[in-house]
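Please decode residue identities from the backbone states below.
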């Protein structure tokens, strides 16, 4: 995916070859994960989710990256989950992340949640980068 983003940023076009599809082909049901960098830290299992109206930064990822809670600013945002429940966020933080080959300053809502992903990049990031993510690829 990082190579695809790099190609798109350079040429404003994306071309996907059949051999780049997952083994399951077009019938797979895997989510779109990418890997990003913050300084010297590599963060894998970053979920790209066009259905999310916010970028989410789980608290456990904050600790793993050695970021202190004092860097997190107050936020009045409440996040609604897919099941309709609502949860207050711990706060918000801007982080510079390198998503090959570009560095982005991204606003994240920090939440104390248990999740299968380390970060969630939602529509705010997708719109900022002017990409069209495809879970097919």
């Amino acid at each position: 995916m990082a190579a695809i983003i790099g190609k798109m940023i350079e040429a404003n076009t994306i071309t996907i070859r059949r051999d780049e599809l997952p083994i399951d082909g077009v019938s797979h049901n895997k989510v779109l994960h990418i890997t990003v960098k913050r300084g010297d830290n590599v963060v894998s299992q970053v979920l790209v989710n066009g259905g999310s109206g916010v970028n989410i930064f789980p608290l456990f990822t904050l600790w793993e990256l050695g970021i202190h809670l004092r860097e997190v600013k107050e936020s009045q945002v409440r996040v609604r989950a897919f099941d309709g429940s609502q949860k207050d966020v711990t706060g918000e933080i801007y982080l510079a992340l390198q998503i090959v080959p570009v560095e982005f300053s991204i606003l994240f809502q920090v939440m104390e949640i248990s999740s299968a992903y380390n970060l969630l990049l939602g529509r705010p990031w997708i719109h900022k980068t002017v990409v069209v993510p495809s879970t097919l690829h």
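Observation: Residues 80 and 86 are 4 Å apart (CA to CA).
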